[in-house]
Amino acid sequence: MGTERGNGASGPSGLPASAVATVTGDAWEALQAVSSAVLAVTRHLSVHEVLQVIVRAAARLLDVRYAALGVPDEEGSFAEFVVEGVTDEEWEAIGPLPRQHGMLAAMLRDNAPKRLDDIRREPEFEGWPVAHPVLKDFLGVPIRDGDDVLGILFLANKHHRGDGRRGFSEADEEMLTLFAAHAAIAMTNARLYEHNRELTVVAERNRLARELHDAVAQKLFSLRLTARAAGALAARDPGRAVQELEQVERLAADALAELRAVIFELRPADLADGLVASLRKHVEVLDRAYEAEVRFTAECPVTLPEEQEAVLYRIAQEALHNALRHASARTVEVRLRVPDGRVVLEVDDDGAGFDPASTGAPAENGAEPQAGGLGLASMRDRAESVGAALTIDAAPGNGTVVRLEVPL
Predict the structure, then answer these.
(1) Distance between CA 156 and CA 141 in Å, rounded?
(2) Cα 405 from Cα 338, distance rounded (Å)
(3) Which terminus of the chain has a smaller tally of CB atoms within 10 A, N or C?
């Protein structure tokens, strides 16, 4: 059954249907290949990851043996140089990052694409390390943002061409130039994203500094004055001195509680490092801040959409907060597993436990009240928002296991 395409319809690449109809054959296949390569790049946000994906996508796009991307610095070298097709052992044998000399300097100076049948015959071919792979046909294209060169894509040793000839064609150069224009957008976006992360971290540090000053510094100041008063009274009024020392103990306990509360608020500004790394860092902070032993295990790397990773992280954070501050747990284990096409997060503690059916009931062993059902409603809302299943296994005096399952 046919499909009508009106003026507002679009094809699989996002182009208007009228445009799709005019692009056929090899040109359409090339457009699809560039579109797939661009989409592969734009799914990533960290600068280094974007560079790696650009190189990998360019190598696949033009079917080459070797690909590289150099990001120039201001000191005559490269801030980063990412390669594809070279093993770790080969890269180690090649030596330090290349400097801007020879062909690299020529491309930076000319700021234009360069297509060669044999790079070894060029006057600029100089200074190549002995262990460097043998290059022949070569295509280099700058990645530009206006007049600024963000980097240069280097491709070499094309595997084959459809016309039976070797080397790069004019069509290859046009395709890589088009891809480089999109790569520039991805690189700029990644740099802006990382800059925003840095600003967020600075803002978070400033907020914590204010909280430390308001909540902890005042108590420490009072503690210091009280300790000084106890020292002055020790000789002439031992009874009063004991009272002052008891006040010192109370102030120290309050200051420690406030400090732990602030430390608990330490969290990554985002999950750019991934769910596993972010959870591990958070657990390490809590393990140092509390007397309880807090452990984390992950069976394998876990990659989920950003929204789902954020939900898993926040639920783990809430469960840890409950275990350490409300349930007086001595041991808390955070486990991340991937069984049978699911991501399973478990936070298991040996604390006071509670009755999941009750809300606002006090915990046992003198722990703090479980206000708002220990955030259970919030946990369930978060889980439902990403199609995850949340279960709570708890009973008074028997600890708690919070379990979240997310389908892959």
Answers:
(1) 12
(2) 9
(3) N
